[in-house]
Sequence to fold (767 residues):
Amino acid sequence: MSIPDDARGYDGFGGEIGRTFAESKPWWPPAARAGGAPNIVVVIVDDLGYSDIGPYGSEVDTPNLDRLAADGVQLANYHTTPLCSPSRAALLTGLNPHRAGFAVPANSDPGYPAYFFELPDDAPTLAESLRAGGYATFAVGKWHLTRDALSHDAADRSSWPLQRGFDRYFGSLEGLTNLHHPHRLVWDNSPYDVGEHPDGYFLTDELTDRAIGMIDTLRANDPDKPFFLYFAHHAVHGPIAAKEPDLAKYRGRYKEGWDAIREQRFRRQLAAGLFPPGTALPPRNSEPGKGVQPWDELTTEQQELFARYMEVYAASVDSVDQSLGRLLAALERHGELDSTIIVFTSDNGATAEGGEEGTRSYFSQFAHVPGLPAEWERDVPRDQELIGGPQTTVHYPRGWAQASNTPFRLYKFDTFAGGVRTPFLLHWPGGLTETGLRHQYVYVNDVAPTLLELAGVPRAAHRNGVAAAEPDGVSAVDVLRSPHRPSRHTRQYTETGGNRGYYADGWKIVTRHVPGAEFSDDEWELYDLATDPTETRNVAAAHPGKLKELAAEWERTAWRNAVFPLNDGSPGARLRRADEEQLRGAVTLFPGTPTLERYRSARLIQFRDFTVTASALHTPVERGVLFAHGDQGGGYLVHLDADGAHLVYNAYGRVHRAGPVPVGVGRVTVRLVAEALPEFRWRLALQVGARQAELPAVPQLLGLAPFTGISIGLDRGGPVDWELHRRERTFPYTGRLSWVRYEPGRPADYDPEQVARLWAEAQRVYD
Fold:
């Protein structure tokens, strides 16, 4: 089959990228072929840094990952995109992320082709190709390949996992959740509504249970059918969390601080041969807004608090390794460990989302809204001993993210190595004979073509009658076979939020773009990765011709991959399509309605006035929650008790209370009235007839808060009021609740969508 010149690749791969699996022969060693096609397990962890597991220099106990590395192939030079959804889209489709519709995570909708946030119709996923090749296909955990506005129960499900090639799915469609109290879980194509999780519940454990259950169920019905398991951990994305036994294991382990841990990890990396002798450990990150303080300049109180955050993170990584150990044991029980390809990796580098000092109030720290006052409270003081447990939503300071990304600079979101270099292990004793380290360049969109070639399954030529788009990734089987084979992936662009990068045969250009600044070739820096893999020496001045050549290549490649227009967070990025307005219409909820999805719920209240009205038949002995919205990270609820109606408002962990307001008997109406005030605040009034109790000015719940959607008749999910939860659990209302009605009101003038519309109108007038 010949490929026309104008169809040869998007990144200068020539004919290699156009090579089809129909032209190649499956590569199975005789032992593996004798038992049929290999199983495939892909384990992807969220926001795990390069050095966070034992094979890459970590002090965290990861014996099961150590075992995979010892008996498998370890990539030292694996690259991803700088963010989660783009990496997952590239991994599952073999396309570059912009062509796959995911320039950034699926939490906006500016209308550009690369921001469609649904996988294209002409992009068969790895699961779709494998299912067509006779595989059972399972997925558990984080999806984040569905636009947030399409995650509710009446949405078009064409971008949900079962419609993209998976037979079974259990997890969260969103980019993060609470490991102690998941805000919303989906089982196959439907919400999995849990009234209350038991004490000690931990999502990593349930995902592992579900994954093993899928394998056991398959084997109970078909002993031979190969399977593909896509296990996408929600750990270790914020808010970070861990179980108490794991936390206890790491108490006191991080007192020496992030500088010492970083240096120790780097020494182990050099000793393991991950980098050549003479590789430099860069100085601490010092870029504006990304700098790290020297550990020995912190106060004793800061050191104690910051060490506690890292104990939680390490314990969460440890739990991922334990999960893997259980999965390996299940495969061994079925006698299939050696015939199963196991991949372990991360979607991007570790994140600086916790800021300079970390936060015990993750959803306040995550409120990225233009115009938010500088004094906005980013960290609500809480008992340090609660950090990482079920009562808190926390994240570690960026000094630990720098240590996680050892030996690289910067973090998730950046196109420097700290954002895009991650661990990658591949274990297949029945198929790979030459194990050990590989230093060749491999990119995230190479994973699908590599696994398909190893399995001997062709990539689907069509999807739903549409010819499949040519992949951008190339098979890395040659690299897996031998440490001496050259990489076939020699060029690769990167772009995220205006940060740009381009790799070409060991050279790399990269930018540190300031949002709002003009895009210019003057932003480019140049690094020779052969002599400087940690990007410490900008050689742009010494090689102006090379920089100009690569900058031109980046631009040509960007045009071919729908990267333009570059989006660095201008007001237009907050525009939403018109059909989302229906999500802001008034709605009446009746008893038995499952918890509303997070984004659908938020559209009813955020950046505006709103009113909630509950109607019930009530007697003095009836008690319980009428409606609740949110969880321990921020929310509100109204409940009735013997003394009347009570309002609880959780402002990112700081709890405010109003009431009681006396309530009569018979048909009663209880109303919560919210008025949007300047500086992102609400005035809240709890009203029963002519009587009311008021909270005069509380911080609005913004961004991803309230994280758990609206429930009526009880407080499902993470509790809004922990003290009330301790006494009453979900506190179901014992009377006859008739209905609850939400009525959105006037938007505030600082509503980002209102600002975006005004900006767009001004642009049209200007043009």
